[in-house]
Structures are given as C-alpha cells and as structure tokens.
Amino acid sequence: MGAANSSNRSDNSLYNDDDVNFDHFQILRAIGKGSFGKVCIVQKRDSGVLYAMKYVSRSACESRGALGGVLKEVELLSSLEHPFLVNLWFSFQDEEDLFMVCDLLTGGDLRYHLQNRVEFSEESVALFVCELGSALDYLQLQRVVHRDVKPDNILLDGAGHAHLTDFNIATRLAKDALACSMSGTKPYMAPEVFMCALDEVAGYTYPVDWWSLGVVAYEMRANIRPFSVHSNTALVDVKHILSSPVHYPRYWSPDFVDLLTKLLCVHPGGRISSQQELQQTPLLRHIDFKEVLEKRTKPPFKPPEDHLNCDPCLELEEMIVETRPLHKKKKRLAKQRSAQRDSDPETALVKEFIVYNRFKELKRKDMEKKEREWERELEEAMANSVVTTLAPIMEKPSENLTVSSTLHENTPNDSMTNTNMVRQSSKKSTTMTTLSSSLQMCSNCQRSDSRKSKNTESLEFIDRSPSPNTLAGGGGGGDST
C-alpha cells in the first residue's frame, strides 16, 4: 500500500455530509491479510479516489475476544493525523464486518521487501529512522504507545517513504501513567516489557517503541534481527538474551553503529526516545527534519512500480477460498435482510463502534478556523474604532448656545438663516471663522432687538398712566384734547 493518497487532501469537492457505507465503494482487489481481517484496494464511487479498506469479521472478533482492540483502534485513529502514519478516512459497519478506510500505500510493507532480499543502505535506514521517529514523537505527544512496531506494520508509499500502521494493540496512557500488559511481538518487544511480565518493574512507557525501531533498523541493514528471540522463547531466556551484547558487522560505519547502540540500550532512561535526541546523533545531525516531515527528502530506495508490492496469492484466495467473499456481500446481505424482515428483527450493530468521516472533521475544523478569524477581525475592528483623541472645544460654548436659543425664541427668521448658514458651512467645509462672525452678527442684532423691546414696554406703561386733567375733569378727555 503506497502514496496513491495523501493525508493532506484539501479538495473541497470531497467534503460530504452523507454517512459513508459499503455501497459507496467499488472493490478492486485484495492486497493484505491479518489475524482477524483483510485489506483490499477500493475506489470511492463519487470521487474516484483510491483507498485501502481494512475489514474484520464481527463474529471472529467476538469469538476470540478481540472486538475491544478493533474498537480502540478506530477510536485512536480518528484522533490522529501525521504524514508518516496510515491515516483513517472513514469507518462504518454492517451485520457482518467492521470497516476502516485508510490511506492507500502501494509500496508494500517492509516485511515483503525483506523477504525479497532487498538490501537497504545505511542512508535508506537512516531516513526510515527519521520518518518513523517523527511519527513516534508525534504519538508520544498524543500519549499513545504503539507497542507493535515491526516490518509488517511499516508500509511504503510509491516514493519509498515509511508509514506506521496497525494500532490494534496500541494504548493511550493517562498523564504520568504506565502500561503494564505484555503486548506486542516478542522479537521486537523491549526488555522492560518482559521485566514487567516478571514483576521486576511496575510498568513501561513510550521508550518501548524506540527499542522496536532499533530492532527494525538493524534488521533492515543486516536482514536478520539483533537478538535470537522467537515467539516460543521463555521469558527468563529472553531477559538473558536481551542483556547480551549486540554484534555489529565491521563494515558498518561508526556513526550508524552509534545510532543503533543508543536505540538498543537496555535501560529505558539511556535510550533514544525523542526526535530531539535523534537529531543530536552524529549520523543524523546534518539532516533537516523539517524537510523530512514535508517529504522533500528523496528516499534512496523506491519500490517497484511495475507490479503491486504484495503477495499475488491473496487475490486468488479471496476469489476462490473465501466462504464469504467481499464482492458478493451486497447480494448476500440483501437476502439476509429480506429474511430478517419476515422473521427475526434486524441484527443489532456494535454500539461502541465509531462511525467516522474525516472529511466531516476537516469541514468542521475549517468552519472553526473561519469563526476564529471572524472573531479576531471583529476584535481588531472594535479596537481600532476606539476614540484616542478629542477635538478641541470652542471657547465660550455657553454664550453661543444662549445666542442660538434666543434666536429661536425671538427672531425665527434670523434663527432659520443662522441654521442654514451652519448647514451650508458644514457641507462646504468652510472655516470656523465665518461661522463665528455670523453668530456675532446675530448676537448684535439680538442685543438691538432686546433694547427695542425694553423701550416699547416702557412707553406702554407710561401711556396707560392717567393724566392729571383726566383726574380733575371727570371724563372730558375729548374736549381737553
């Protein structure tokens, strides 16, 4: 399985809110087989994109007590995304199987290439260690221990980049917690895992994956493992074997031996267990890990392109030997559902199984990103709209206000004229001097009108006063005049 797909897809046309099921994919061919399931190449009917579909039998998982591992794997993969992981895109189920649709990597797994006697150079192994170390460093940030790093679970894309897959026995640790179960594949398990099984230590943590990476790196270069440990080796013997010194061929460079020695350190505290520690080794000190992460470093080994890098017998087995072939699932389930409608109720699905659609998650994250940008723009706009300076206040504002008020009460025509002048001066952006002089003129007019008003009131008071002749003559006002 290789780089037919990329985990960095950004095609908005692929965003789809519909739930995905088996009918959305066309089955092309089988390419892998595991303990509880198989892997095949599928094509999504609406977009034409190729994926790898892993499917496991519900009945087989339930009978062997492995259902919990599948549920945990889907839960973990739905929360992870990294360039050197085989990322999950969809998950769904039906009455027979549980499905995980992931990146398609057509370069095959490392086990396939080792069995075909591929000779990996020190440069190739060094790049694999950088890429897989980057993935393990990311998993450690997510508090995930893979616990099964081995050539079978390392897939290459078409260009030759390495990707870690199969999280069936992986676990997410609580903060400052330890794992304590004996999980993994014996030849690749770290010493502390066996010591934990022998009750010599309380537990283990992330460095176990880096030990496994060291075993894989040694095997890639030498085509044999550094320790003669097998599935039936007793725990006490394993402890003795792992504590023995490792043989390194003389033709290996000192820097390469130094790297493997630090990965295969028996004591977890002295073992390389982070990308930062990888960068400090003499062999990898010159490597730009940013270019590695962006897959701009060209791998020295490129898988063949003229054929699928997998066992061709898997397709024949699926077509001939399989009792419930995948390409006949649709008709088979249709008959089962028809019979169930006539008799028993529909078979219950696994409630704990997560139905996942990465495109929905990408769409949701895009909306959250846009909302954060809108909020930031709104906050910036509000911050920029705050008045930082005040315009100078005109002198004697109360006097001008009094004049304006008096004009409104006593001289409406002049007041109207003044208001028009103010509006016209505002529209034409005239100077405040013109407005001030206009107000002064209106003030002088008001003072003159005020004096006239007072004189008029005074005369009216005198005219209303009785004259001495009127008081003496008793009503002869006309004759006297």
How much is the average pLDDT? Answer: 81
For the secondary structure, the number of strands is 10
Strand order of the largest sheet: 1-2-3-5-4-10
**pLDDT < 50 stretches:** 10-15, 401-412, 425-431, 450-465, 468-481
Distance between the termini: 133 Å
Computed CA radius of gyration, to the nearest angstrom: 44 Å
Helical segment tally? 18
Tell me the series of helices and strands, N- to C-terminal.
EEEHHEEHHEEEEHHHHHHHHEHHHHHH
The main pleated sheet reads as: 6 strands, antiparallel
Question: What percent of residues are in strands?
Answer: 5-15%
Structural class: alpha+beta
Helix content: 40-55%
Globally, the shape reads globular
Give your account of this protein's structure:
- This protein has about 475 residues and is of the alpha+beta class.
- About 45% of the residues lie in helices and about 10% in strands.
- The protein has 18 helices and ten strands.
- It has a six-stranded antiparallel sheet. A two-stranded antiparallel sheet has the order 6-9.
- Helix 5 (about 190-195) runs antiparallel to helix 7.
- It is globular.
- It starts with about 25 loop residues before the first strand and ends with a helix.
- The relative contact order is 0.10.
- Mean pLDDT is about 80; it is low at about 10-15, about 400-410, about 425-430, about 450-465 and about 470-480.
Question: Any chance you could write out the topology, listing elements then pairs?
Answer:
Elements: E1 25-33, E2 37-44, E3 50-57, H1 58-64, H2 67-77, E4 88-93, E5 97-102, H3 110-115, H4 122-141, E6 144-145, E7 154-156, E8 162-164, E9 171-172, H5 191-197, H6 207-222, H7 235-242, H8 254-263, H9 275-279, H10 289-293, H11 313-321, H12 329-342, E10 356-357, H13 358-384, H14 397-410, H15 412-427, H16 432-463, H17 468-473, H18 477-480
Antiparallel strand pairs: 1-2, 2-3, 3-5, 4-5, 4-10, 6-9, 7-8
Helix pairs in contact: 4-6, 5-7, 6-8, 14-15, 14-16, 15-16
